Amino acid sequence: MVTRRALWAAGLTVAVAACSQVSKLDRFEFVDACLPESADATCKGVACGPRTNNCGEPVMCPDTCTAPDTCGDNASKQANLCGCTPGDSPTKCCVPEALDASCKGLECGGTTNNCGEPVMCPDTCTAPDTCGDNAKKNANACGCVSPDAAVTCASVACGTVTDKCTLSVACPSTCKPLYGCAIGGAASNTCGCTGGAMQTPPAPDGCTAYSGEAQYGNEGRTYYVCGSFEQPKGRAFCQAFGTDLAQPKTSLQNTFLASIVPANPWLGIEDPSGCPGATCAFAWLDGTELSFTNFAFGEPSNNSGNEHCIELNRFGAQWNDVPCAFKQLVVCETTCPGP
Prior knowledge:
This protein is of the alpha+beta class. Among the domains are: about 100-145, no CATH class; about 150-195, no CATH class; about 210-335, Mannose-Binding Protein A, subunit A (Mannose-Binding Protein A, Chain A, Roll), CATH 3.10.100. It has helices at about 5-30, 40, 100, 150, 230-240, 250-260, and strands at about 50, 60, 70, 80-85, 110, 120, 130, 140-145, 160, 170, 180, 190-195, 210, 220-230, 245, 270, 285, 310-315, 320, 325-335. The strands form nine sheets. The chain has a four-stranded antiparallel beta sheet with strand order 13-14-20-15, covered by helices on one side. A two-stranded antiparallel ribbon has the order 1-2.
């Protein structure tokens, strides 16, 4: 017969056992439950490949490798190592260095980088040099580039000179009549007499040569009394053999010129602007001002507005303005000494 005390004791034992099992179950769930960290935390410092998070769970980290590399074959063994993709050539699997690194010490031209790839280095040569023709063979060699002829000839009056690259440059003549570029280029910045190497040009057919005289202050000059032409054609005739229209710049030279002519000749005087106004601003053909003049009374008058050229009256040696279309005697002059 089971007593009431025995039943109470048995119930207590069962209850204690049940509580013990619940306690164990709660304790098991509390120990084994894990909160996974974020993927960023798991992949911190990892470039690519699989990793295990704080709960032991597998996590695939995103590939942060930059071209031309990707997460390599060895990623599962070393997840933070970028490597080339399977089957790629060694060159493709190489990370190219910066252009500055490839071109260090090079001034210009082509070279190869650490991956064997061709690269073109920027031209760092300074003027007048630049990356030369030999750049492909010797990438750090600057070559010479000639400056503009205008730069080379800036202080040169005429003749042939050598530029910075030792090349010959023919400079245009800036000598003004009655002077011309000294022949031969021996003194390229010196204007010499017209007609050649300090030599008098021969008189053209129909012209007579007269040498200047010390008493008239024109010693060393030669005059050529020729035929009659309109003023523009007369000047072109003189310039064709290295001379120009006569320019008597002193009273004595003016008197000498009047003494050798059989008719009134043109003088080497003009208005460079072409006489745009009622009066002309005359100057010598060589561009210098008229420091000496001998105009007749009331001249220049510019009658009818078309008297833009100057003649010398052989009687009295006075000057007068007349239309340039008149045909007058032409006297050419050179600074070269007479024969």
